[in-house]
Amino acid sequence: MLRSPVVGPVLFSLFILAGFCTPALANTAVDTNSQTSSSTKSVATDRQLAAQRDLYRQSLKLIGNRDWQKLRRQRTQLVDYPLYPYLIYADLIADLRYARRHEVGNYLRRYQGSVKAQHLRARWLDYLARRAYWQTYTEYYDPKTASVSRRCNYYLAQYRLDNKPLAISEGLKLWSEGKSQPKACDKLFGLLIKYKHISESLAWQRFNAALINHNFQLARYLKRFLKSPEYLKRHQLYYDIDRNPRRLSQHKAFNSNSAEERKVLEHGLVHLARRDPNLSLKYWTRYQLSHEFNHRAQAKIVSAIIKGLYQKGHRTAADSYFTDHLSLLNQTLDGELTEWRIRQALAELDWPAASLWLARLPTASQQKTVWRYWKIRSMESNPATTLNPELNQLTRALARERDFYGFLASEKLDKSYSINHNPAIVDDQLLRSIANIPAIQRARELHHHGDSLDANREWAAASKSYQRQDWIAAAVLASQWQWHNKAIAAMGSAKYWDDVEIRFPLAYVQPINQAAKNAGIQNYLLFALARQESAFNATATSGAGAMGLIQVMPATAKSTARKHRLPYVSKKQLHKASVNLPIGSRYYSDLLQRFGNNRILATAAYNAGPTRVDQWLRKTNGKLPFDVWMTLIPFKETRSYVRNVMMYSAIYSRKLGMTPPMLQQHELDRLL
After folding, report:
1. Are 473 and 584 contained in the same domain?
2. Other residues' Cβ atoms within 10 Å of the Cβ of residue 661
């Protein structure tokens, strides 16, 4: 066994680069994600690999220029390169026609299970469907990888090929989903409707599913399939419950105790609890006697009623009802509502109530660092427990954690933070095994060429069946390849948190140092932002549209660049560290200035927006200590985000040889 957070260059050349070849198209070996054939293994030198990479880059240009003849000649020199299948794929996709079906079949067999084989199958099936080659479609269809659109086309093919019973039964299953299905399903569904295969009961089933999914447009559409007065009456009643949950007063109308009816009642009672919790409680008292709600549904309804009562000012009643249902709520919701109640106590600085509800947390939740910290704070705030020896014991135990609250506990004891670095133990043979997986080889090369989308796909394909030690080995490899976001994620998948070198890399050192200097902020803070925002993935794009290392929104980039006269032309530039870091760091610096050089507030604003932080500050009106204010941030993501950035900044400062406190004195002292 080797303790090897870093793999040396000699080992690297011997086994990290080993086996970097894939079967030629003429080779009959199957290329899978989990094993390699001995005939494909070779030791590629650095020079050979560099030459192959250069030739592959040239081939990509030929693809861009659609110079297929030259590409076919040139790719013969890349038969042993991991990305050789990508060149074959590009050729096939550029000229996909029925006459090439045998080439397509050969590719699918020889690269079976690979990412590009799945892509080619999908493109080929779409081609066959557009041209109504239904028999061939059924021959190439794979149910394990088929999308909903291709499933619909498959059963349409079966219908056209006179296998109508199968097409109808499976088509009805697809139609009955409580959501709108892809446009590709329209032809199949049209046949089901035309020949009256959709029963009223099936339409009613789909209506209920759509209503529960809040798909009201689909729910309205489904009314056309309902003919009987009973169904039409219930359709209107159920539909009205969402808009006016007081219709729940019509108890006699809800008498079936069906799963669908219970879902509608649950939905209505939760909605009503937000508007009129007392009325919701009244109806719930009756419906829980007439209907058999499962524990999760009960917990959801009771939770909504408790929150409604509390927010309407009926706190004593809310707490009493909560206490009566504590076991159900803790077991079903994992203490989530109890945690909410603790935050309400903290908002009032009601330390006795905080202590009471902390003690009512499930045992597992009480071990979370956040609630261990608040137990300490509640004991500190109670004159009866400030001298209790347990207080010092709890603080010392918490200070041993590498955690935001652990670092705060260390400050209380005036001791150094517990970084707790413990390098992962990695076995040579396992490293070689992971490095020789063809999909991992392809992933590494795609990452090298900047194709992050396909690199991520290959990595995911390779790691489907990883065990814990496999993930750790993969993390070591990714770290060696400077693929930091994958190394960090792999350690997370392994739940191995103590290899601080891999989990907190010093990446993009020069551009981060320069951007921090120009923006007038600490470099370790910028490292922390990059670690939290993208895990050092320069090509990251969030669902909201934020881009790059420190996730800058294009609109923010445009206004910040204009304000500070920074070069910026288009949002694509935000994937470049040389553009992203200067703009993002200046924006963060602006937030610091706006919020009185308070990094807690600036960091919250960087995540949730400065307008929201202004709103939260107006609500608390300068009455709360920093830690209470952080705990009361309405968004769970932002609460975690601020804690992480502050903790990460402390870790990075120490990696850079500095020992500033995680929070400055003015940040600790200011009431928010």
Report:
1. no
2. 15
Residue 545 belongs to some domain of the structure = yes
Dihedral of alpha carbons 629, 630, 631, 636, sign: positive
The region, left, alpha or beta by phi > 0 then psi within -120 to 50, assigned to residue 214 is left
Exposed, middle or buried: residue 409 (CB in 10 Å: 0-12, 13-18, 19+)? buried
* CA 367 to chain CA mean position, Å: 25
> Position of tokens 């553009």?
579
CA 92/CA 323 separation, integer angstroms: 66
Which residues partner with 43 through β-bridges?
Answer: 18
- Which residue matches tokens 């200070």? 399
Residues serving a catalytic function are 533
Calpha distance 401→398 (Å, rounded): 6
pLDDT exceeds 60 at position 23: no
Q: What is the mean pLDDT of the chain?
A: 92
pLDDT of residue 3: 35
Contact 534, 526 (CB under 8 A): no
Tokens 């009802």, located at residue = 321
Q: How confident is the model at residue 7 (pLDDT cuts 50, 70, 90)?
A: very low
Residue 498 corresponds to which tokens in the numbers above? 């103590």
Of the candidates 261, 207, 266, the one whose C-alpha atom is nearest the C-alpha of residue 232 is: 207
* pLDDT per position as a tens digit, 235-251: 888 888 878 899 999 99
**579 and 515 share a domain?**
yes
User: Are residues 636 and 520 part of one domain?
Assistant: yes
Cβ 588 vs Cβ 599: under 8 Å: no
Domain identity same for 592 and 546: yes
Residues 662 and 518 occupy one common structural domain: yes
Q: Which residues contact 85 (CB under 8 A, 6 or more apart)?
A: 22, 31, 107, 111, 114, 116, 117, 442
Give the percent of the chain with pLDDT over 90.
84
- The DSSP call for residue 251 is G
* Domain finish residue from 471, 503, 535: 503
Instruction: Decide if pLDDT at 21 tops 90.
Output: no
Q: In terms of domains, do 498 and 551 share one?
A: no
What residues form DSSP beta bridges with 2? Answer: 426
- Res. 615: pLDDT tops 90: yes
User: Tell me, what CATH number does 160's domain have?
Assistant: 1.25.20.10
Q: What is the DSSP code string of 30-52?
A: ---SS---GGG--B--HHHHHHH
- Tell me the average pLDDT across 13-41: 36
Which residue has 């200011």 as its token pair?
A: 670
Radius of gyration for the alpha carbons in the chain, expressed in angstroms and rounded: 30
**Domain extent for 124:** 2-165
Is the confidence at residue 270, as pLDDT, over 60? yes
- With pLDDT > 70 as the criterion, what percentage of the chain qualifies? 93
> Residue 552 forms beta bridges with which residues?
547
CA atoms within 13 A on the CB side of 626: 18
User: What separation in angstroms does the CA of 503 have from each of 3, 268, 491, 532, 548?
Assistant: 16, 46, 7, 11, 19
Q: Do both 19 and 80 map to the same domain?
A: yes
Please write the tens of the pLDDT for every residue from 299-337: 999 999 999 999 999 999 999 999 999 999 999 999 999
Could you give the CA distance from residue 25 to residue 566 in angstroms, rounded to a whole number?
Answer: 50
Q: What is the tally of structural domains in the chain?
A: 3
Closest CA to 125 of 148, 82, 100, 154: 154
| CA gap 530, 644 in Å, rounded | 11
pTM for this prediction: 0.87
Q: Do both 430 and 565 map to the same domain?
A: no
